[in-house]
Amino acid sequence: MERLSGKVAVITGGATGLGAAMATRMAAEGASVAVLDTDKDSGAQVVASLTAVSPQSAFYPCDVTSEDEVRSVFSAIADSFGKIDILVNNAGRHGPAGRHRLGRGLPGLG
């Protein structure tokens, strides 16, 4: 099936576990997938496996607790892919819960 053909998916926390499974499935459905994670080795492995079915997929090292880093990575994704159709906020963080609010106007999200 190619239900996501022509779509661009961004998955935070996409290097392992559920995030990697979603990236694999979305690529199989025809999406170009941007995998974001702090785990560079696992992220590169996931994207290497995706490129067989989704050649435009790419890995972006990103710590989602850093607003500047998120903004920079989303800008790079918008430049590379031209748009973002699907955003999966799968990344988590360990430690005490805190409040953090990202600013508005992330590139590619309109």
Summary tags:
110 residues, alpha/beta, Rossmann fold, four-stranded parallel sheet, 3 helices, 35% helix, globular
Entry summary:
The protein is an alpha/beta fold and 110 residues long. The chain contains three helices and four strands; from the N terminus they run E-H-E-H-E-H-E. The chain has one domain: 3-Layer(aba) Sandwich (Rossmann fold).
Question: Explain this structure to me?
Answer:
Strand 1, helix 1 and strand 2 form a beta-alpha-beta unit. The mean pLDDT is 89. The protein has a single domain, classed as Rossmann fold (3-Layer(aba) Sandwich), CATH 3.40.50. Helix content is 35%, strand content 17%. The N and C termini lie far apart (28 Å). Helix 1 packs parallel to helix 2. The chain has 3 helices and 4 strands, in the order βαβαβαβ. By secondary structure, it is an alpha/beta fold. A 4-stranded parallel β-sheet has the order 3-2-1-4, with helices on both faces.
